[in-house]
Structures are given as C-alpha cells and as structure tokens.
Amino acid sequence: MRRYESLLFTLFLWMVVASVKGAANITECPLGGVMLREDRYPAILTCQGFSDTDTVTWSVKAKGTLDKNLISCRPNQSFSYNSSERDLLVGRTGNVSQLYILNEYRLRAGRASIQCSIGTGNTMPCDVEAVNPASMTSSDCQLVMRNDDWTVLGNCSFVGAYSTQDIYTCSWHQQGAGQPSVETAGGINKTKIVKNQAEYYNGMCSFTSSLPTVEGDYSYTVDFFPGPDTKPSVGVTIQRPGLPVTRCPELINTTENIHCHCLPNPTTPGSPLPTLQWRGLGSSERVIPDITALNIAPLCQLTWGPPGQQVELSTKLADGPERVFIIRPGGSLVVGEVLPLVCSVSNAYPDATVKWTSTMSGNSYPCDEPETTSTRSCTFTVQNFHNRESVTCTGRNTEYPERLFGSDTYEILLA
After folding, report:
1. 355-359 contacts: CB < 8 A, separation 24 or more?
2. In contact, 184 and 171? CB cutoff 8 Å
3. How far is residue 183's CA from residue 205's CA, in Å, rounded to a whole number?
4. Signal sequence: where (predicted)?
5. ω into residue 272 within 30 of 0, thus cis?
6. How far apart are CA 61 and CA 80, in angstroms?
7. What is the pTM of this model?
8. Which of 104, 127, 310, 383 has the most CB atoms within 10 Å of its CB?
9. Tens digit of pLDDT for each residue in 335-388?
C-alpha cells in the first residue's frame, strides 16, 4: 500500500510539473511502469509534449546506478541509435518521438528505468517489466459437475507463461441463466521449463465452486495472467432429471444370477447426472439370484440437486402381470348368442399388452387383434361351433414380454 501511495504521489508531482513547464510524457507509461509482451516485437514507447524544434533525449538507466545510455534525436533526424545499445532505436516525426526496443526484453525488465527528456525536463521514470502470455484455449479446459456435493471442478492447462515480476493469477467467471456473475479465485500449479535458454512455466489453473441452483445454460470464462487476449470459456447445463428407468436382461438362464440396473432417464437424464441406486442397496446394479425374486419389485431411486433442495424420484423394477383372467359368462351358450369377453390383467409394471387367440378359425377369428395395452375386450357372436373350442388371452409385460407374461383360456360349451 505504501508503495502504491508513493507512486501516486510521484505521478501527482509530475502532473504538476507538466502543467507548469509543458514537460514531455511517455504515453504507454501513465503510472510509472510498462509491461512488454514477448509475443509482440518490437516494443514501442511514445514520447509527446514537446515542439518541433526541441531535441528529444531518451535515457535507459540501470536501476540503482547513475549510468545511463542516452539516445538523442534532433529536429532534423528521423532515426537515431547508440552504438552500445543496438537493440534500442529512436525515431521521430515532428513533435512525436518513439523508442523501439527491438529484442531482449528480459534484459531490461526489472532492472531498467526509461525516461524521455527535453533539455532539463525529464518525464516520470518508466520501469520496464516483461511477460510472455501463456498459450491457453477453450480446448485446454474442462469442467466436471458433481451431484453428490453439488460442486463444479474446472481446470485449464497453460503453456509458456513467464513474468519477470513472478506474478501469476487465475480466476474463473460464471455467468448465465439471467443470474448475477460470480467470480471464483483459482489455484495455480506450475512447472519451470527452459526453452532456447529462456525460462517459461507450464501448468494448470484450477478451481472448485458450488454449482448454480437455477436451471439453464452457464459459461465459465478463465482470466489468467499472463494469458492470451482471447479468454478461454467452457459451458455447462443445469437440468432437472426425469424418472429413472430399470433394465434387466431379456433372455435369462435360470441357473445364473440376474443383473438388473437402475439407470437415468434416456430422454432427460439430468445435468449433472443424478445419483442412482436400488433402495436399501446403495448401488445402481442389483444382482438377483433367482428368477422368482423378480416379483419383489424393488425400487430404483434417483437423488439430484443441491443439499437441502434435493429432488428424489423412484420407479419400480418391471414386474408382472401377476394374474391374467378372462371374465366370462356363466353356463352354456347357444348359437347366435352375443358373447362379450374381457381380459383382466393385474399388477403389471409399467404396463402389459394383451393378445387374443383362438382355436376356432385362425387369424380370421374376430378377437385376433394386434398386441395393445388398451384393447382388453373381445365381443363376438357364437356360431355353430363344436364343443370344446377355446379363446385365449395372453398378457405380456411391456418391458420384458418374453420373460414376464401370463395367460388364461376360456373353453366354449354349446348347449
């Protein structure tokens, strides 16, 4: 804080001097320091605030010493340089002079102070620092959402970062779904490498934060220093899940265990993915040792949402039908009588299809209909059939029709 206050006070004094004497100023150095980027050559500093007839002198002074490397540019000179400082060049057009630092930024950084002067009037000292912006794109970043503690974890890898001040910062900015922007400070893990005899750092910028609670699309933008001009950004979606589903194998060997799974809804799985388990088991896979145990109909349970606001949904394992029964008239029938039959299917989850068949006249029989979950009645007129003809209703589970089914047969007795 004291250093910052001292800098502001020095700046104030130079502003007073400039207003009185019309002192020159370095445009790129309003607060006494300039950051040179190694991905941009040459670095250019601009001196203004003098007349066309003034001689402009640039000085590059090593910090803590009195030695200066001076380069002067008279009114009639377009360019000038100092033979001992071949990486420095001064150019001039009218009342504007520019200092070109051609290379070796790091040799200047942290150890040099630059001034522009006209006669005895110097500009405020401009301290030089250097950075090499890291390479970091959106494809270098990833986010992981966790439903169990309702958090988001993010990381971005970076390559080739360098700061002569050894300053590296990382923050993540969340925005979206009409909610206020949220900034989270990130952590940096870096490793030094040497390339072409120069130091750089590769590493990771990471963060952990609570997920938003409002459904919608969100973006996370990474602000890394020293980093690229285009900030990396990755996105996530918060979406409430639909009912879970259960899956067991369709074909079963009765001598083997049956592996049934509790799964997210295929249409609306939820984001982040919910926690799924068979109630009482703590696992999303259920091993059933015997086919008869399927009648237990265990619950597949889903949990989703932030602590204190969790949503719980559940669905049963497919089972049934428990009973298939044809509701029939009592006594014998006579030719010409209208015979209404209804197939009753009980305790089938999630549902059952019904199929009517008969031994009377094959596919032309009036009750031969496609399998359906809605048509469970069959009405026909008794004709001159032989005794002991039959009508059969078969009910099959919609999830596992080859494994879970039942049927009932009604024998027609004519008077």
Report:
1. 355/393, 355/394, 355/396, 356/391, 356/392, 356/393, 357/391, 357/392, 357/394, 358/389, 358/390, 358/391, 358/392, 359/389, 359/390
2. yes
3. 14
4. 1-22
5. yes
6. 18
7. 0.71
8. 127
9. 767 777 788 888 888 888 888 777 765 443 445 455 555 557 676 666 655 566
